[in-house]
C-alpha cells in the first residue's frame, strides 16, 4: 500500500464539543450592539408588562386641567391633550405595538419562506401558481385589502395580524424564491442531489439554513413596517381604537399638538425609532452569529 | 541602477492590520526589471505575487494596508516617495496593469472603445475623435480582427480572448514604461492562452514593452520570461535567469514545484507524482526560521534561523541554507 | 503499480444528447437551441480512468451531469451496469446514486458552509439508510482517515479548511456509500500545483484500494497524460477522438487534438521559440454550428468536403477519430 499524503500542517484547531446553538449564543453575546439591542427590548417588554405597577398614572384618566404639560418630575414626558401621562401611554402602547410588530412579521415570514422555497426549488407548476398568487397580493392595494379584512371580520387584534400577514407574505416569498434559485445552482445542492438526498431534505438542510440570514434582515425590516401599518389602520379607524394606545396611534394623534407640546408626538416617535434600531442590531447580531465563518 | 533597468525595487514590504494584529504579506522584496525584458513572479495562492502588483501600483486597500520600501525606482523616479495623487498620475501612464478576469474588469454598459481610450482622456486630455483613432490603432496592434466594427461593441459582445486583447490595448495605450500582467490568461482556454501569450511576446519584440508577468503556471514562465522570481509566503525565495532556474533550481521549494507539475510532453512513468507535503503557511502564524522549513525534505537544524536571499552567481540567488554551506557549517552547531 | 483495467463495461452511452433552449419565451421570439451534448457514444471500462478533455463550452461538464442524470438527457441511452438509466423513476435512480458519484470542481462551493464536516459526510449515509447514528459517526471518521485528514476535524466547518483539504472532504463524501463509478469534474483544476499533486496521488491510491472507475473531466492535458488510461477529446458537443492516453499523445489523429496539445505551455524554456502550429480564430458559437465538420472553421487542413459533410467517429490506426483526413505521422 502506498503511503497516503497526510496533511501535516493542521490549521483548524478542534473546537470543543459545543452545539451549534451554544456557538451561536456565544457569538451573539460577543456582539455589543446586538446585546444592547436585546437588553433594550427586554427592558421594554418588562416595562410594558408591569406598567400598571410601575407607573403611578392611569393611561385613560382625563384631566382637562393638566392638558399638554411640558415634561416635569411628575410627568416625565409631559401630558397630552387630555392631560394623560405620555410615558405611561407609550408603555401601554408598547404592549400593542410590539405584538403587532412581531407576530404578523413572524407569520408572514413563515408563510413566505415555505412558499418561496417550494416555488424556487420545485419550479414548474408550483412556481407558477405561487408566484401568480404573490403577484396578486402585491398588485392589489394592500391597504384596501387590509381594510376589507378588518371591515368584514371586525377590528380586533387577531384580525390585524391576519390582515398584515396576508399583505406581507408575498414580498417575503419573492425574496426567498430568488435566493433559492441561486442556491439551487450551487454545487453543494447538486452534490446532495447526486448522493441521493430527497428533495424535502435538500430544501430543509441545504436551502433553508442559507436563507436564514436574509430572513433575519427581512424580519428586522418588517417590524417597523408592521408598526406603521398598524398606525395607518388605526388612523383610518379600522385598527386599534382610542382610547387604547398604540405607538402609531400616539404619533398620529400627537402630531396635531406638535407646537403646543412637541413631546406628545416626538416621544412615541422616538420609542418607535429606538425599538426599530434595537431590532436591527439584534438582527445583525443574529445574522453574524448564525454564520459559521464569522465565529472565529 | 543602470541605464537598462526600467524598474528597481528595494526592500518592498506590505503590512495589513486586521482583527488579530498586523500581518506582513510582503517581506523585503528586491528585484529589477530590465528595459524590454519580461520578468516573472511565480508562486502559489497566498504567496504574495498579486499583492506585489497592487503594491507597485499603489492599489493596496487603505487604510488596512501599508506599503513601505527603501526605494521603488521607475526609470529613475522614486515611486515610494509619491503620495496618492502622484500615484494616480503614474497609473495608466507609466505603469499599466492587465488583470485576470477580462469580463469583470470592463464595465458592461460602456462601449469598448470608450473604456480602452479612457487612460488617454485622463492623462493626455485628448478629444473623442483623437481617442477613437488611437484606440483603432491599438486594436490593430493587438490583433483584434475587424477592429473598426469592434470599437462600438459592448464587452459582452466580445469573446474572452478578444476582451483580454482589448484590456492589453488599454494597458498599452499610453505607451507605459512597464506593463504588469496579473494571471492574464488564467481565465482563458489553452488555445486562446497561446494566442495571448504570443501577442505579449510580439509586443515586447516590436514595441519594447517591459513586462512583469505574474502567474502560478511554470509553463507560462518558461515560455515567456527572461528572469524569474519565485515567491513563497510573502518572500522571494529564488531569483534567477529563466534557463538557470529550470536547469539548476537551487531552492528546495522551486525543485519541489518543478517536480510536481504534470507534463503533457512526457509519457507517464508512474501515476504517483512527487508532491510537496503540507500546505502554504498562514501568514499570521509563520513557522520559526525558514518559512518553507516545515514542508522541506532537506531541513537542517540551522533552518530554525531565517535564511537570507544570497547570490549564487551573477544571475542567480536563493534563500536557503543549503546554498551557503560555509555559514551553515560554522553556525549549525550554535545552540 | 499498474491499473488492471478489465474489459468489462461499467457505463456506456449511446447517441446521448442534451439540448438547452435559450431565450424565447413571451412575444413569440423563437428560442434558440444550444447543442451542449450532441450524440455522444462511449464506453467506460471497469477500474479505468477515462479522461474527457476539451475547452470551455464544449459540453464536457454537461456530459458528466447527464451521465449521472443530474440533468435529464434530451435523447439517447445511458447504460450503467446493465441497467438503462433514462427510463428509471426517481426512486430507482436515487437508489442507484449510491454507486455513481461525483467530485466537483470548486472546493468552496461544493460544501454547504452551514454544515459541519460530520453532517456533510453523514448526509449520503442517512439518505441510503446506512445504519444507527453511532455507525454513521464511525463511518464518517473512517472516511476522513481514508482521504488523509484527521478525525478530530469532524466537528469543524468547511471555511476552516484550505482548498486542498476541502477537496479531500468532497472526495470523502463521494465515497461514503462505496461507489464504483466516480465522475471527477475538474476536481483538481482549482488547486495549486503542489496540492494538485497531493490530491491526484490520493485519487490514484483510492482507485487502487477501492477498485474505482473514474470519469475524469478536465481541460488540463498535462494532468490527463499523467493520470488517465484512456482519453476522449470533445469539441462542441461531439467526441472527435478517443483512444488510450499514450496513443493519443504520441499520435494525435484529429487536427484539433494536435493543436490543443501544441497550445499547452511547456515548463522548459529550451522548448520555446520554434514556431508551433497555432489554432486560428475562436470557437464557433454552439448556437450557430457551422455546416459540415464543426472544426473546419479553425482547421488549418480543411478541404471542400469538410465544409459540407460531417465526419463520423470511425476506427483508424488503433483509435477512433471523427475526421475526413486524419493526420499522418
From TrEMBL, chain B:
One example GO MF annotation: ATP binding
GO cellular component, one term: plasma membrane
Domain ABC transporter: from-to ranges: 9-258
GO BP terms: peptide transport; transmembrane transport
CDD domains on file: ABC_NikE_OppD_transporters (cd03257)
Classification via PROSITE patterns: ABC_TRANSPORTER_2 (PS50893)
Recorded topology in the membrane: Peripheral membrane protein
Localization terms from the record: Cell inner membrane
Xref: InterPro entries: AAA+_ATPase (IPR003593), ABC_Ni/Peptide_Import (IPR050388), ABC_transporter-like_ATP-bd (IPR003439), Oligopep_ABC_C (IPR013563), P-loop_NTPase (IPR027417)
Gene3D superfamilies per the UniProt record, alphabetical: P-loop containing nucleotide triphosphate hydrolases (3.40.50.300)
Record key words, sorted: ATP-binding, Cell membrane, Membrane, Nucleotide-binding, Transport
Database matches in SUPFAM superfamilies: P-loop containing nucleoside triphosphate hydrolases
Stated family: Belongs to the ABC transporter superfamily.
Official protein name in the record: ABC transporter ATP-binding protein
From TrEMBL, chain C:
Membrane topology: Peripheral membrane protein
Cross-referenced InterPro entries: AAA+_ATPase, ABC_transp_ATP-bind, ABC_transporter-like_ATP-bd, ABC_transporter-like_CS, Oligopep_ABC_C, P-loop_NTPase
CDD domains: ABC_NikE_OppD_transporters
Compartments, record wording: Cell inner membrane
UniProt-listed SMART domains: AAA (SM00382)
SUPFAM superfamilies in UniProt: P-loop containing nucleoside triphosphate hydrolases (SSF52540)
GO cellular component: plasma membrane
One record GO biological process: peptide transport
Domain ABC transporter: 11-261
GO molecular function: ATP binding; ATP hydrolysis activity
Assigned keywords, A-Z: ATP-binding, Nucleotide-binding, Transport
Main location as per UniProt: membrane
NCBIfam families: oligo_HPY
Stated family: Belongs to the ABC transporter superfamily.
Protein name from the UniProt record: ATP-binding cassette domain-containing protein
Organism name: Paenirhodobacter ferrireducens
Upper lineage: Bacteria, Pseudomonadati, Pseudomonadota, Alphaproteobacteria, Rhodobacterales
Amino acid at each position: 500500500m502506498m503511503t497516503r499524503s497526510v496533511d501535516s500542517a493542521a490549521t483548524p484547531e478542534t473546537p470543543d464539543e459545543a452545539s451549534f446553538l451554544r456557538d451561536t449564543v456565544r457569538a451573539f453575546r460577543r456582539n455589543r450592539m446586538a446585546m444592547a439591542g436585546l437588553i433594550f427590548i427586554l427592558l421594554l417588554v418588562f416595562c410594558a408588562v408591569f406598567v400598571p405597577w410601575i407607573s403611578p398614572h392611569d393611561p385613560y384618566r382625563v384631566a382637562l386641567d393638566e392638558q399638554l404639560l411640558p415634561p416635569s418630575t411628575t410627568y416625565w414626558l409631559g401630558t397630552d391633550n387630555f392631560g394623560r401621562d405620555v410615558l405611561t401611554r407609550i408603555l401601554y402602547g408598547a404592549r400593542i405595538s410590539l405584538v403587532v410588530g412581531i407576530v404578523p412579521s413572524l407569520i408572514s415570514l413563515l408563510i413566505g419562506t415555505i412558499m418561496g422555497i417550494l416555488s424556487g426549488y420545485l419550479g414548474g407548476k408550483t412556481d407558477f401558481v405561487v408566484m401568480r398568487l404573490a403577484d396578486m397580493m402585491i398588485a392589489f392595494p394592500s391597504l384596501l385589502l387590509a381594510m376589507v379584512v378588518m371591515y368584514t371580520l371586525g377590528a380586533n387584534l387577531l384580525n390585524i395580524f391576519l390582515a398584515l400577514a396576508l399583505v406581507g407574505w408575498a414580498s417575503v416569498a419573492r425574496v426567498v424564491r430568488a435566493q433559492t434559485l441561486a442556491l439551487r445552482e450551487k454545487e453543494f445542492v447538486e452534490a446532495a442531489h447526486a448522493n441521493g438526498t430527497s428533495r424535502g431534505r435538500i430544501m430543509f438542510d441545504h436551502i433553508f439554513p442559507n436563507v436564514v440570514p436574509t430572513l433575519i434582515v427581512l424580519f428586522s425590516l418588517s417590524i417597523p413596517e408592521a408598526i406603521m401599518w398598524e398606525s395607518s389602520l388605526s388612523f383610518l379607524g379600522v385598527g386599534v381604537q382610542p382610547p387604547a394606545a398604540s405607538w402609531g396611534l400616539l404619533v398620529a394623534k400627537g402630531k396635531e399638538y406638535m407646537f403646543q407640546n412637541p413631546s406628545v408626538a416626538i416621544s412615541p416617535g422616538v420609542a418607535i425609532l429606538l425599538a426599530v434600531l434595537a431590532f436591527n442590531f439584534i438582527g445583525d447580531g443574529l445574522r453574524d452569529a448564525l454564520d459559521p465563518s464569522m465565529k472565529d | 541602477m543602470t541605464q537598462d533597468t526600467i524598474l528597481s525595487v528595494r526592500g518592498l514590504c506590505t503590512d495589513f492590520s486586521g482583527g488579530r494584529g498586523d500581518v506582513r504579506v510582503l517581506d523585503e522584496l528586491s528585484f529589477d526589471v530590465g528595459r524590454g525584458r519580461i520578468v516573472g513572479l511565480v508562486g502559489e495562492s497566498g504567496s504574495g505575487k498579486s499583492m506585489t502588483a497592487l503594491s507597485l501600483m499603489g492599489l493596496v486597500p487603505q487604510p488596512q494596508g501599508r506599503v513601505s520600501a527603501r526605494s521603488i525606482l521607475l526609470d529613475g523616479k522614486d515611486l515610494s516617495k509619491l503620495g496618492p495623487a502622484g500615484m494616480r498620475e503614474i497609473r495608466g501612464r507609466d505603469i499599466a496593469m492587465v488583470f485576470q478576469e477580462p469580463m469583470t474588469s470592463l464595465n458592461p454598459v460602456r462601449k469598448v472603445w470608450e473604456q480602452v481610450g479612457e487612460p488617454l482622456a485622463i492623462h493626455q486630455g485628448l478629444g473623442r475623435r483623437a481617442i477613437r483613432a488611437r484606440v483603432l490603432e491599438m486594436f490593430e496592434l493587438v490583433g483584434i480582427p475587424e477592429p473598426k466594427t469592434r470599437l462600438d461593441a459592448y464587452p459582452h459582445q466580445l469573446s474572452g480572448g478578444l476582451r483580454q486583447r482589448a484590456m492589453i490595448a488599454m494597458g498599452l495605450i499610453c505607451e507605459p514604461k512597464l506593463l504588469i500582467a496579473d494571471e492574464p490568461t488564467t481565465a482563458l482556454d489553452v488555445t486562446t492562452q497561446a494566442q495571448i501569450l504570443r501577442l505579449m511576446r510580439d509586443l515586447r519584440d516590436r514595441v519594447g514593452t517591459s513586462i512583469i508577468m505574474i502567474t502560478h503556471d511554470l509553463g507560462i514562465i518558461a515560455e515567456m520570461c527572461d528572469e524569474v522570481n519565485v515567491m513563497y509566503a510573502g518572500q522571494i525565495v529564488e531569483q534567477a535567469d529563466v534557463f538557470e532556474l529550470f536547469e539548476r533550481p537551487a531552492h528546495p521549494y522551486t525543485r519541489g514545484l518543478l517536480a510536481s507539475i504534470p507534463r503533457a510532453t512526457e509519457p507517464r512513468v508512474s501515476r504517483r507524482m512527487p508532491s510537496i507535503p503540507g500546505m502554504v503557511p498562514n501568514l499570521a502564524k509563520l513557522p520559526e526560521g525558514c518559512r518553507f522549513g516545515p514542508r522541506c525534505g532537506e531541513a537542517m537544524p540551522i533552518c530554525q534561523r531565517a535564511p537570507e536571499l544570497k547570490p549564487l552567481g551573477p544571475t542567480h540567488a536563493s534563500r536557503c541554507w543549503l546554498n551557503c554551506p560555509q555559514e551553515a557549517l560554522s553556525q549549525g552547531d550554535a545552540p | 503499480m499498474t491499473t488492471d483495467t478489465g474489459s468489462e463495461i461499467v457505463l456506456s452511452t449511446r447517441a446521448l444528447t442534451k439540448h438547452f433552449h435559450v431565450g424565447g419565451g413571451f412575444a413569440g421570439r423563437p428560442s434558440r437551441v444550444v447543442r451542449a451534448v450532441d450524440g455522444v457514444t462511449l464506453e467506460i471500462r471497469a477500474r479505468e480512468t477515462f479522461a474527457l478533455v476539451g475547452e470551455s463550452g464544449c459540453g464536457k461538464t454537461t456530459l458528466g451531469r447527464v451521465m449521472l442524470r443530474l440533468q435529464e438527457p434530451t435523447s439517447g441511452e445511458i447504460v450503467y451496469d446493465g441497467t438503462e438509466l433514462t427510463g428509471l423513476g426517481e426512486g430507482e435512480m436515487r437508489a442507484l446514486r449510491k454507486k455513481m458519484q461525483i467530485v466537483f470542481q470548486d472546493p468552496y462551493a461544493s460544501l454547504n458552509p452551514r454544515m459541519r464536516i460530520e453532517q456533510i459526510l453523514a448526509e449520503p449515509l442517512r439518505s441510503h439508510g446506512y445504519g444507527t447514528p453511532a455507525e454513521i459517526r464511525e463511518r464518517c471518521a473512517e472516511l476522513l482517515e481514508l482521504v488523509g485528514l484527521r478525525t478530530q476535524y469532524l466537528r469543524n466547518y468547511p471555511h476552516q479548511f484550505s482548498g486542498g483539504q476541502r477537496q479531500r472532504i468532497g472526495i470523502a463524501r463521494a465515497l461514503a456509500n462505496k461507489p464504483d463509478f466516480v465522475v471527477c469534474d475538474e476536481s483538481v483544476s482549482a488547486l495549486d500545483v503542489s496540492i494538485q499533486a497531493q490530491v491526484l496521488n490520493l485519487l490514484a491510491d483510492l482507485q487502487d484500494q477501492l477498485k474505482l472507475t473514474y470519469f475524469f473531466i478536465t481541460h488540463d492535458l498535462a494532468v490527463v497524460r499523467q493520470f488517465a488510461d484512456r482519453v476522449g477529446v470533445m469539441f462542441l458537443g461531439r467526441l472527435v477522438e478517443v483512444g488510450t492516453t499514450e496513443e493519443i499523445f504520441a499520435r494525435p489523429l484529429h487536427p484539433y487534438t494536435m493543436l490543443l496539445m501544441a497550445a499547452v505551455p511547456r515548463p522548459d524554456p529550451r522548448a520555446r521559440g520554434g514556431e508551433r502550429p497555432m489554432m486560428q480564430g475562436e470557437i464557433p458559437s454552439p448556437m450557430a454550428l457551422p455546416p459540415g465538420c464543426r472544426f473546419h472553421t479553425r482547421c488549418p487542413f480543411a478541404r471542400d468536403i469538410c465544409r459540407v459533410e460531417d465526419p463520423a467517429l470511425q476506427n483508424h490506426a488503433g483509435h477512433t477519430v471523427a475526421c475526413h483526413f486524419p493526420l499522418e505521422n
